[in-house]
Amino acid sequence: MKISILALHLNYGGVERCIATLANILSEKYEVEIACSYKLNLEPAFKINSCVQIKYLTDVVPNENEFRGFMKRHRYLKAFREGIKSVHILKLRKSTMVNYIKKCDSDVIIATRDIFDEWLGQYGRDGVLKIGWEHNHYHDSMKYADKIKFSCTNLDYLVLVSKSLEAFYRGKMRGTGCKCIYIPNVIDNMPKENEMSALDEKRLISVGRLSPEKGFLDLLKIFNIISHDYPDWHLDIIGDGPSRASLEKYIKHNKLEEKVTLHGFQDRNYIFNMMQTSSIYLMTSYTESFGIVLLEAMSCGLPCISFSSAEGANELIHSGSNGYLIKNRNFAAYIKKCEDLINDKESRKKIGLEGRRTVSRFTSDMIRKEWFSILEKK
């Protein structure tokens, strides 16, 4: 059996990490090819087995940052030119992906973006098993949810990464012929017990794309308060993105240069090593469909704190048992739980161990059975 996965790019990102993990799992049993619209780096950001074929469909890259930069600086002529270029890039993205779908000789095609879902449903050959894989939470936006319904109407399956999303879309998709299935994302490398954090270091850690929805500015505001009473604790933030400049500005303005480190984008070994020498994981996302990074932190024995607005965290964290969920983005409550853990190493250990037990339900061994079951039904 041959399986194709449709990807926008293979650079750093949550969806891209999931694509790499799934491709590696499926390649153990099937022939796997990734059809990728853009090549943003010489090599994929995440390790992909050598037996997986990667086919880049264009030699262009998105120019959204250039367009926005010229608009922000009021250089409208250059912005206009970038706008024209952007239209060309988007047309090329569609024509090449549609052409790939039409000519694809795979038995199964998995789409990883809503626009790919739509094209797969429109142009996929008869007899091909067509699967949509939705990673984002609609976050109370019926407009977004309706877009997903429209995109997936002609697919065989829509795979959702959380139970709540599966229940929601099962109702939305009723009568379309597209079956909704829950398959959570996985952690593909469970550290050994002797690789867990000792929880001795006075370090807090958070990992993710530096973009507004991840709430890193809120994290800095929270840490700024905590650092007044616990000046010897340090915050490490790993990731890069459009919010970096504003975060650097806040750090400088509040004289946190010696207490906060922005590590930029780092590979998984670097992140793992940092988690091994941290004591608490902090998440302040406004929205999060699943939260693989929480699983990674839990696998290292770190107690985790998250706002409940990060929907995926609600399915992973049982507040008071394997971490803490803070409702209504209540800063005072978040700070209180963080300081409680700072002051009580035994609680850190107890919660961290319970979190590690949670991770055992999300290993690749558990999830591959779910994917294989869908594919073998073909």
What are its keywords?
378 residues; seven-stranded parallel beta sheet; 13 strands; globular; six-stranded parallel beta sheet; 45% helix; alpha/beta
**Rg, nearest Å:** 22 Å
Summed over residues and divided by their number, the pLDDT gives a mean of 93
SSE ordering: EHEEHHEHEHEHEEHEHEHEHEHEHHH
Distance between the termini: 10 Å
Strand content: 15-25%
Extended strand count: 13
Q: What would you call the shape?
A: globular
User: Tell me about the biggest sheet?
Assistant: 7 strands, parallel
Quick synopsis:
45% of the residues lie in helices and 16% in strands. The protein has helices at residues 14-26, 64-72, 76-103, 114-123, 142-152, 163-172, 216-229, 244-253, 268-276, 292-299, 311-316, 331-343, 345-359, 364-376; strands spanning 2-7, 31-36, 53-56, 108-111, 129-134, 157-160, 179-182, 203-207, 234-238, 260-264, 280-283, 304-307, 323-326.
Characterise this structure:
- The chain is α/β, with parallel strands linked by helices.
- It is built from 14 helices and 13 strands.
- The protein has helices at 14-26, 64-72, 76-103, 114-123, 142-152, 163-172, 216-229, 244-253, 268-276, 292-299, 311-316, 331-343, 345-359, 364-376; strands spanning 2-7, 31-36, 53-56, 108-111, 129-134, 157-160, 179-182, 203-207, 234-238, 260-264, 280-283, 304-307, 323-326.
- The strands form two sheets. A seven-stranded parallel sheet has the order 3-2-1-4-5-6-7, sandwiched between helices. Strands 10-9-8-11-12-13 form a six-stranded parallel sheet, sandwiched between helices.
